[in-house]
């Protein structure tokens, strides 16, 4: 019998995009599947939107607002699949995403973790550009983590297809983590695995909304504290697999790349990160602003300069999002256009941003 795949979708205030996400799940060419949505106490019409898909086999549950990690744990507790496909409520799967990965899995054991390609978009998925990274290949668990931490890169949550055996071995999502919960979770999945098999052509479309994104930390103290906890766990997880000089150097690089999420307001977290770096045999430098903001640092001080950088960056992404939303609505209304899940071009959406930490999935 073909394996049953559980597509698990936590949803919170996602009424605008949930329908599109559910259609991408229903359209999977792998037909032996179940789709479960857990509404995490939304205050908009998310639950009502989800229930319009019940006639197409989507199972819908609701709970008091507890956070994405708790909603994912609730969805997993209700599923019966042999494989787990995690999917956020605004992201999209290419129609053959799951089928391609299960075809590759046929010759592998249940402890091999399957990954695939992903690309960012704002509103029009046909603008997504798939750009490979050092993680887009078959890797051992420790090599995967070292490359992630050395290069400040990740794999988006939905790229993974995880066997039930491996999911149960990894344990539940950590509901303490208000940011980087997927980064920490998939570290544990990796540690329990027999390595990663990368499946070319198995594609995910990641809707990037910045401030509305769980992975965006900003100046929220609770998210900063959660990120620091995840960072400490990342370091301990890698060192449990590999404590070589290269692994320790990767940990120091990772701490340095994340330091900008705390600086200059949270000097306590900066000091703790510095202490951990010293324990690893290195040290951390003061985070640097992009060159175009350094005049503000010199004239107005670090606090004002960093806030200016964050505000202008936020304005930039708001303008990009507004323009893309306008084009989305224009083409949809005048040409009966729906976003095609194909490979196109939009280099700006896949460019690594020097002052925003890549923390979505182990990511």
Give an overview of the whole structure:
The structure is a single chain. This protein is of the alpha/beta class. The protein has a domain at 5-212: Alpha-Beta Complex (Spore Coat Polysaccharide Biosynthesis Protein SpsA, Chain A). It is 44% helix and 14% strand. The protein contains 13 helices and 8 strands. The protein has helices spanning 18-26, 46-51, 68-78, 97-105, 141-151, 164-170, 181-192, 221-241, 245-258, 267-279, 294-300, 302-335, 347-350, and strands spanning 5-11, 33-40, 58-63, 83-86, 92-93, 113-121, 162-163, 196-207. The strands form 2 sheets. A 5-stranded mixed beta sheet has the order 3-2-1-4-7, sandwiched between helices. The protein has a 3-stranded mixed beta sheet with strand order 5-8-6. α5 crosses α9, α7 (181-192) runs parallel beside α8 and α8 (221-241) runs antiparallel to α9. The longest helix has 34 residues, at 302-335.
